[in-house]
TrEMBL record:
One GO location term (cellular component): cytosol
Annotated protein name in UniProt: Heat shock transcription factor 2 binding protein
KW Signal (keyword) present: yes
Lineage: Eukaryota, Metazoa, Chordata, Craniata, Vertebrata
Signal sequence, start to end: 1-17
Alphabetic keyword roster: Signal
InterPro entries: ARM-type_fold (IPR016024), HSF2BP (IPR039584)
PANTHER family recorded: HEAT SHOCK FACTOR 2-BINDING PROTEIN (PTHR15434:SF2)
Length: 132
């Protein structure tokens, strides 16, 4: 039991540190060089600890909003077959943790907006919402 608590605490601290680094453009470019970043986020979203999932979603939001469009293009992230959309949807609808529910819903909204802008970069479509 003690080991689980220590591991969960380490995950939380690591995610908070990565999120803080990701806030700056230089920091985001630096952590984006780590090829396993998205896989790490996907894995941590499956963790049973609500706080770990919350911090993983916050880091994902940072990557989505700051980097996906500017540095790699949204298609690379949105086309990732490992993107855990079902897990994010579950967190948005079923989590008992209010901040986690809200952050999961915001992440789904961000993904939807990103997909819409990727599919129609000039905003010429009449569709307001693209479903993720």
């Amino acid at each position: 039991m003690m080991m689980v608590i220590v591991v969960s605490l380490c995950y939380r601290l690591m995610l908070m540190a990565l999120y803080n680094v990701s806030i700056s453009v230089k920091g985001l470019k630096y952590i984006r060089e780590f090829p396993g970043l998205l896989s790490l986020i996907w894995t941590l979203l499956e963790d049973g600890d609500s706080e770990v999932c919350l911090h993983a979603l916050r880091l994902l939001q940072s990557v989505l909003l700051e980097e996906a469009v500017a540095l790699v293009g949204p298609g690379l992230l949105l086309d990732d077959p490992l993107l855990p959309l079902e897990r994010i949807r579950t967190l948005a609808t079923s989590s008992r943790h209010p901040a986690l529910r809200q952050t999961a819903q915001e992440t789904l909204d961000d993904l939807s907006s990103l997909r819409a802008s990727f599919l129609d970069p000039h905003g010429t479509s009449s569709s307001d919402q693209v479903h993720i």
